[in-house]
From TrEMBL:
PANTHER family: P450, PUTATIVE (EUROFUNG)-RELATED (PTHR46300:SF7), P450, PUTATIVE (EUROFUNG)-RELATED-RELATED (PTHR46300). GO terms for molecular function: heme binding; iron ion binding; monooxygenase activity; oxidoreductase activity, acting on paired donors, with incorporation or reduction of molecular oxygen. It comes from Favolaschia claudopus. Keywords: Heme, Iron, Metal-binding, Monooxygenase, Oxidoreductase, Signal. Belongs to the cytochrome P450 family. This is Cytochrome P450. Its cofactor is heme.
Length: 461
């Protein structure tokens, strides 16, 4: 290991000539290895992989100072030739470079995704939560599949007014295929074209260009999932099969009668971005909730006691309007997001101008990541960080809640779906606690069957 002189780039593990830190980069659970590096080098660690500079931030202060206060130059995304450009995913918001089109898309989404605007969808979240729990009660072994269906259904209803089929829904099946294709396309180091971008210009008959065939197939799938529900919603605008209200018709009703090609493109991709951003993240978070309840029965009992009190007052199933009266369940939701953060390394940002931080030079083109997992498991902020303890948010509310906001990212790229995600998770959690007891499965003697649980590695766990 070495530490660089001030005025150079920040310190980090010693690189090798040409390949830099390639061999030291972790293959999985990167956040743990990066957390160890920050203990040695501080909260701004520098690595270089095949010439690509990467900085890993490991404190809220550093993340806010750079991605927040200097967000004008820290808000682009790294270039992914295979997953972003050739397959078309970079046309959606999450991978889009910082540009005027990005700003228009963000503005459009922001307007419709404020906590106030989202109240009109409360009923829909409540309905879908009941559908979810009825299915789970009939067959708990299909829990994960039903959670996926819930997350996908909510987002398709809110975005396009489309009601999913109970099984084998065409758009949900398609979106699963697209997400699987995206995971393969985004695998670090898997595609030569990510390291040597000009390979994309070789003709398709050239040996070694099979990636072009795959990219074309995945680009088609990507367009199918973005256009399919959009076209369905436009065609059904006046028919009873379209659930109202929904994002698309709300925006259309405020737009000029005839949309320009640019406006159409914006609408198509803003709806597609909602669909892509919302589904997998919610699945990951809700899975963490069910796991926590099975592992911490006392937390579950406390939450259910709180719920019983509130529900016996109005005698109905839980509703989103009950949220302010359920502070402990609010803390369960927060602890789910902290305990197993959905995106442990956030989503990478890209620096678009040279910068200087704490006397260190950061060059244009540097990829900046934040170790969200490490920040949310810092024992100084969250004592006994690996324990699931919702109470921590009740005692030390303000600071803990402010820190938790990093689970939704930073600056101009911070998650635009945060309020949506919270409503959708809160009501699913409250309905699950109301309708069932969550525990490990039991064997024939009634003894719990405990299994080791290991979270998948990747951008979304
Ligand atoms: C528990 C649930 C969720 C978590 C933890 C989460 C977290 C995140 C994070 C960390 C980012 C990247 C922020 C950054 O680059 O600094 C992000 C981006 C994004 N999220 Fe979420 N999200 C969740 C749910 C949702 C939902 C429900 C929607 C849609 C309704 C959504 C839509 C998006 C979009 C469109 C982006 C891309 C924003 C951009 O690149 O400018 N997310 N989310």
């Amino acid at each position: 290991y070495y530490a660089t002189k001030p005025r150079h780039h920040p310190p980090g593990p010693r690189p090798l000539p040409l390949i830099g830190n390639l061999l030291q980069m972790p293959k999985d659970h990167d956040w743990k290895v990066f957390g160890k590096w920050s203990k040695i080098f501080g909260d701004c660690v520098y690595v270089r992989v095949l010439g690509q500079p990467i900085v890993i931030l490991d404190s809220l202060t550093a993340a806010h100072e750079l991605l927040g206060q200097r967000s004008a130059i820290y808000s682009s995304r790294p270039r992914l030739v295979m997953a972003g450009e050739l397959t078309g995913f970079a046309q959606g918001l999450a991978l889009m470079p910082y540009s005027p089109r990005f700003q228009s898309l963000r503005r459009l989404l922001h307007r419709e995704l404020t906590a106030n605007m989202l109240q009109k969808y409360w009923r829909l979240h409540e309905d879908e939560s009941l559908i979810l729990m009825n299915k789970v009660l009939q067959d708990p072994t299909r829990l994960l599949e039903y959670i996926r269906h819930y997350a996908g259904s909510v987002i398709l209803r809110v975005t396009y007014g489309y009601q999913t089929a109970p099984e084998n829904d065409r758009f949900l099946l398609l979106s699963e295929k697209v997400m699987a294709a995206f995971s393969l396309a985004a695998r670090p180091g898997a595609w030569a074209v990510d390291m040597i971008p000009w390979l994309r210009y070789l003709p398709s008959w050239f040996p070694g260009t099979e990636f072009k065939r795959k990219a074309a197939k995945w680009a088609q799938l990507n367009m199918d999932v973005v256009e399919g529900p959009y076209i369905w919603a436009i065609e059904n605008q006046d028919s009873a099969s379209l659930i109202q209200p929904n994002f698309l018709t709300t925006v259309l009703s405020q737009s000029p009668a005839v949309l320009s090609a640019e406006e159409k493109d914006l609408l198509l991709w803003s709806s597609g971005s909602l669909f892509a951003g919302g589904a997998d993240t919610t699945v990951a978070a809700l899975s963490s909730f069910f796991l926590a309840m099975a592992l911490y029965p006392e937390v579950q009992a406390t939450a259910q006691a709180e719920l019983d009190k509130v529900i016996s007052a109005h005698g109905q199933v839980p509703q989103l309007s009950d949220r302010p009266s359920l502070p402990y369940i609010e803390c369960v939701l927060r602890e789910v997001l902290r305990w197993n953060p959905v995106t442990p390394l956030g989503v990478a940002h890209l620096l678009t101008e040279d910068d200087v931080y704490k006397g260190y030079n950061l060059a244009v083109g540097t990829i900046v990541m934040v170790n969200v997992w490490s920040i949310l498991h810092d024992p100084l902020s969250f004592p006994e960080p690996f324990e699931f303890r919702p109470e921590r948010f009740m005692i030390n509310d303000k600071k803990a809640v402010e820190t938790l906001a990093c689970a939704f990212g930073f600056g101009r790229r911070a998650c635009p779906g945060v309020h949506f995600a919270e409503s959708s998770m809160f009501i699913a959690i409250a309905t699950a606690l109301f309708q069932c007891k969550i525990s490990d499965p039991v064997d024939e003697q009634g003894e719990p069957i405990r299994r080791d649980v290991e979270y998948q590695t990747g951008t979304i766990r």
